[in-house]
UniProtKB/TrEMBL annotation:
GO terms for molecular function: cyclic-guanylate-specific phosphodiesterase activity. InterPro entries: Cyclic-di-GMP_PDE-like, EAL_dom, EAL_sf, GAF-like_dom_sf, GGDEF_dom, Nucleotide_cyclase, Rev_trsase/Diguanyl_cyclase. PROSITE patterns: EAL (PS50883), GGDEF (PS50887). It comes from Neiella litorisoli. This is Bifunctional diguanylate cyclase/phosphodiesterase. Keywords: Membrane, Transmembrane, Transmembrane helix. CDD domains: EAL, GGDEF. The chain crosses the membrane at residues 6-24, 31-52, 64-82, 94-112, 144-165, 202-222. The keyword RNA-binding does not apply. It comes from the Bacteria. Residues 437-572 form the GGDEF domain. Residues 581-834 form the EAL domain.
Length: 835
């Protein structure tokens, strides 16, 4: 008997510990309750052994009291354990009811003089157990309240039977069978206890054995679950390891592969891993969306030729139209029209769409198997990853192609752009030199294109350029390269030409200039154009100091200087000018930063009586190497090369410094004009630098006047108005220089904020012509209408002064009054004016 109960107690303690740990870990509270029942069972078995071993009646009665208390305390745990396990509704409420009921029974059992089981006349009776041990049981009349114990037991038994039914209904046969056996065993244990108390059996108390057996069975189930979980984890780890190797290989291909080779390598990897009989990467045919054009196909791991097939009647149609689809077996029964499935005895099919940026299907991955699929879930996951990566690569490849197109194509006309042109001309030059042949490049520029933008707007200008670009594109072929060089400039290049140089250029000029001269219809507007062209025969006309485009640009400048609507073929003599321009540029930049070769002179602006009203600051250059260099020489070079920006900053700095010096010397100054070129005016940094320079020398803004030509402000009217308004708001005055030489309309000029109108010297020189006189008179009248000051520039004779004065002009500038004066001479004139 001792060994029997010791084993039971050990089983109960072990089950309680293991089941409790499992229940807490998995958060399954029915197992926590079952662990508690095992704790009560261990206590019950220990008390059963102690009760059967008792030799004193009082000791036996006290043990009986606690023996019954353990049974009563365990009742709520039965309810909670199996009610929760079977997911019975209101389990918690029933448990609480039993807790309240059990507390009442426990109170009566523990506080009464005698336990609920026996009355006053109980005695100890010896008997021999089945283990051949001597045991003693209490015999006597039962307590009047003891039937409540039987009632509780009956209710719990009925409750457990209902739980069996719940398990059975939910097809949980293991749980329903185990609990049914436990109930039957529990009934048997109760009957055995009754027989022992009636001295009719040699058994011992077995009340806790059923729960012990159920707990052991539960441990077996838990251990099997652990084994399954362990096996699943091992399988998952193995699959993850496989996935890691697979995706590492995919990543390696992604890092190393590009272009079509990437797609081939990816599909080869997919076909090998999935052991697919066919692995297909197909894209929706761009010409006919009803068809799929394969990009790469693998048959049993070997690449085969691509093919085209109709989507209709194939599982691929489902993939493209809906989403990923899987047919584990007999796919051909679902798609009887798909002959490939029948001919190749295909059983399993897995298809996954390839999506673009808008999540629209543009193709698919299809895996075909001659055997049914056993793990379609894993294959679908892999196909998802591969399809996503292929889609990403397609988008990257498309973006790269777009960027390449953007890098080498003109956004407006669609023609090759400057970058593409330079690359192509370099290729042409190398081939021409290798084959000892000449090529021809012609650079076209639309004459006065800025006028179109100004009159009709940039949208019309852009449409015009598109029309010209489209016309020129018809000339493009393997023997003729057409590109947009930038702005309103186009290039036509021939890799090889034969014939007399001048005749050849003349012929091409006649044909191509007609393209420009043909009327452009933009909306309801008819736009007529002309063009200028510079040509270069390469490599025969090239020189080591100039490249193809540089030579063509110089020839184009010559063509424009000759009156536009003409062409000019590059000549070797131009190289001398190019080299001269470069040396002038270098020497000028050096003079700006490292010498005193540059200096300013000031030509007075006066009234008719030679009273000083203002002055124009003019830069002069006396080179240590070349001597005096005329502004007519170095200013154009500075504009062509971009050195004008540094020169302009030097001029504004020197003039502002000089004004500050005169102010410090106490002179009352007149406004000093500074000439600004169109490229300077287009540069916001120059305007900011000018204002910052004026502020740094603390000069009143009204002492500075800017002189701009018409062409300098014609490119962008809105920007011109913005800059001029900003300058005038500060107090800087604006003079429109060389008026009459540009192409601006009066309505355009009237919208510009300026203070002074300077008529060009060419009009003054022709005052002996009656028509010109009327024109000058009209311009002076216009200035009065606009409310601006008028300056006659280039007055050299008294007769000119008399005529212009009679028209109402009051301000003059020219050699008749004064040449440009060095600083010291201008100071003398300034001093006389002050006095």
């Amino acid at each position: 008997m001792t060994a029997f109960y010791s084993v039971l107690v050990a089983i109960n303690v072990l089950c309680a510990a293991l089941i409790l740990a499992y229940g807490i870990q998995r958060k399954r509270y029915q197992f926590v309750s079952l662990a508690a029942l095992n704790g009560f069972s261990a206590l019950f078995n220990w008390l059963s052994f102690s009760l059967l071993s008792a030799t004193d009646i009082s000791q036996a009665l006290e043990l009986s009291r606690w023996h019954l208390a353990v049974i009563i305390a365990a009742y709520p745990f039965y309810i909670h354990t199996f009610g929760t396990w079977s997911k019975l509704k209101h389990t918690n409420k029933i448990t609480i009811a039993f807790i309240i009921f059990s507390i009442g029974l426990l109170a009566v059992n523990l506080l009464a003089d005698y336990p609920l089981r026996y009355g006053r006349d109980a005695v100890l009776v010896e008997y021999t157990t089945i283990f051949n041990d001597t045991a003693r049981v209490l015999v006597g009349e039962t307590n009047a309240l003891f039937p409540l114990i039987h009632f509780s037991y009956s209710v719990i038994t009925i409750f457990l039977c209902f739980c069996v039914y719940r398990f059975y209904k939910e097809k949980r046969s293991l749980e329903s069978g185990s609990l049914l056996v436990t109930i039957l065993f529990q009934i048997f244990a109760a009957y055995a206890g009754f027989r022992i108390d009636s001295q009719q059996s040699s058994l011992v108390y077995l009340g806790a054995v059923p729960i012990s057996m159920l707990s052991l069975a539960t441990l077996v189930v838990i251990s099997q679950a652990f084994r399954k979980t362990t096996s699943a984890l091992e399988k998952e780890v193995g699959e993850r390891s496989e996935f890691d190797r697979l995706f590492a290989a995919l990543a390696k291909i992604s890092n190393e592969g590009s272009g079509d080779q990437f797609f081939t390598d990816v599909m080869a990897l997919l076909a090998k891993y999935c052991k697919a009989d066919f692995a297909i990467l197909g894209l929706i045919d761009k010409e006919d969306a009803k068809y799929i054009q394969t990009k790469c196909v693998f048959h049993q791991g070997v690449s085969i030729a691509n093919f085209r097939y109709a989507r209709r009647g194939t599982p691929c149609e489902q993939v493209i139209s809906h989403d990923a689809c899987v047919y584990p077996s007999k796919v051909w029964e679902h798609f009887p029209l798909d002959t490939m499935l029948k001919d190749e005895l295909i059983q399993g099919y897995l298809g996954y769409p390839i999506l673009d940026e808008q999540q629209q299907a543009v193709g698919l991955i299809a895996l075909l198997f001659r055997t049914p699929l056993t793990d379609s879930k894993k294959l679908k996951l892999i196909a998802d990853v591969f399809a996503t990566r292929i889609g990403a690569e397609m988008r990257r490849s498309q973006l790269e192609q777009q960027l390449t197109t953007m890098a080498f194509s003109d956004y407006l006309t669609g023609l090759p752009n400057r970058t593409s042109l330079l690359k192509q001309t370099n290729h042409y030059q190398i081939n021409a030199q290798h084959n000892n042949q000449d090529g021809l490049l012609m650079l076209f520029d639309i004459d006065h294109f800025g006028e179109i933008n100004r009159k009709f707007g940039t949208d019309i200008g852009d449409q015009t350029l598109k029309i010209i670009g489209e016309r020129l594109s018809h000339f493009a072929s393997s023997s003729c390269f057409v590109a947009r060089y930038g702005g309103d400039e186009f290039v036509v290049a021939f890799p090889t030409v034969k014939g007399e140089m001048h005749a050849l250029v003349r012929t091409q000029w006649t044909a191509l200039s007609a393209v420009f001269k043909r009327t452009c219809i933009v909306g309801n507007r008819k736009i007529n154009l002309s063009c200028s062209m510079g040509a270069i025969m390469f490599p025969s006309q090239l020189h080591e100091s100039v490249d193809i485009m540089g030579a063509a640009e110089h020839a184009l400048v010559k063509a424009k200087q000759s009156g536009r609507d003409s062409y000019c073929l590059f000549e070797p003599a131009m190289i001398d000018y190019i080299e001269y321009s470069r040396s002038i540029e270098q020497e000028l930049l050096q003079a700006i930063t490292h010498s005193n070769e540059l200096f300013m002179v000031y030509q007075p602006k006066v009234d008719r009586h030679n009273n000083l009203l203002g002055a124009e600051a003019l830069v002069r250059w006396t080179s240590a190497k070349r001597g005096f260099i005329s502004p007519a020489e170095f200013i154009p070079v500075a504009e062509e090369t971009g050195a004008i920006h540094k020169l302009g900053m030097w001029i504004t700095g020197d003039v502002c410094r000089q004004i500050r010096q005169w102010l410090d010397q106490g002179y009352e100054l007149v406004p000093i004009s500074i000439n600004i070129t169109s490229s300077q005016f287009d540069d916001p940094e120059f305007i900011n630098h000018l204002l910052a320079t004026i502020e740094s020398f603390d000069i009143p803004y009204h002492l500075v006047e800017l002189e701009l030509t018409e062409s300098g402000i014609l490119k962008d009217k809105s920007r011109a108005v913005e800059y001029l308004t900003m300058l005038r708001d500060k107090g800087v005055t604006i003079a429109l220089d060389d008026f009459g030489t540009g192409y601006s309309s009066l309505s355009y000029i009237s919208d510009l904020p300026f203070d002074t109108l300077k008529i060009d010297k060419s009009f003054i020189d022709k005052l002996d012509d009656d028509k010109n006189k009327e024109l000058v008179k009209s311009i002076i009248s216009i200035s009065k209408t606009l409310g601006v000051q008028f300056v006659a520039e280039g007055t050299e004779t008294e007769q000119q002064v008399e005529i212009i004065s009679s028209y109402g002009c009051q301000v003059f500038q020219g050699y008749f009054f004064s040449r440009p004066l060095p600083v010291d001479e201008f100071v003398e004139k300034l001093a006389r004016t002050n006095n």
